[in-house]
Write a structure and sequence with these properties.
Largest sheet: none
Shape: elongated
Distance between the termini: 88 Å
Number of domains: 2
Mean pLDDT: 76
Oligomer: single chain
Strand content: under 5%
Number of strands: 0
Structural class: mainly alpha
Order of helices and strands: HHHHHHHHHHH
Radius of gyration: 37 Å
Length: 202
């Protein structure tokens, strides 16, 4: 389909007919994420009375970000009379729910967005709770617990790492705990404690 023809169809939907249907089908196949082409293709299917309309509508409706706009394009001709009947005197057809989505939620969401956008720009202020001191105390307790060593986690490897890092006080403490934890190796740990004390004094 030529670009100029496509623009003309967008401006005037009356140009949609049986001849434009295969061209729009080819355009949507070649460009599956081209939403304007899908909407025009749906409009063309509806206008031609094609049985593919419902199946294609179910496929395309989730891809269109503004379902109200899709509804306006597809059902604009049925809203000729304000009495709820179209120009043929037949009762107006309600669109399926999957076209409109949940309009109540969308309108309340739009109001919230409009309110936010109309507010004056500025820095965000975060209010601190009244019981801030209590929170700080809890945070400090959590930090102390995380830093404190659990006796079960102390191993000879950890003690040796402390020794290599020249953290002699921690190494001494670790070796003492290990000698209490493993009394059968107390002589070995006693010699390690002596070595650590000598290194600390140097």
């Amino acid at each position: 389909m030529q670009k100029e023809t496509f623009y003309k169809i967008i401006k005037t939907h009356t140009l949609l007919n049986e001849e434009t249907l295969p061209e729009l089908r080819q355009l949507t196949t070649a460009h599956p994420y081209f939403q304007a082409a899908w909407i025009l293709y749906l409009k063309n299917l509806k206008k031609a009375g094609s049985p593919e309309f419902d199946a294609t509508l179910k496929k395309v409706a989730p891809m269109v970000p503004d379902r109200k706009q899709l509804y306006r394009v597809l059902f604009s001709e049925t809203k000729k009379a304000s009495s709820g009947k179209n120009y043929l005197g037949q009762k107006e057809i309600q669109p399926p729910d999957y076209i409109l989505g949940n309009t109540d939620d969308q309108s309340s969401g739009n109001n919230l967005i409009d309110k936010f956008l109309s507010a004056k720009p500025g820095s965000l202020k975060i209010e601190k709770p009244h019981h801030e001191g209590h929170l700080e105390k809890k945070e400090n307790e959590m930090i102390e617990k995380s830093v404190a060593e659990n006796d079960e986690l102390i191993t000879e490897t950890l003690a040796m790492i402390y020794l290599e890092q020249k953290k002699y006080d921690k190494a001494l403490e670790a070796f003492k705990k290990l000698s209490l934890k493993y009394p059968e190796k107390s002589i070995y740990f006693a010699s390690r404690i002596e070595e650590t004390k000598k290194l600390k004094n140097i």
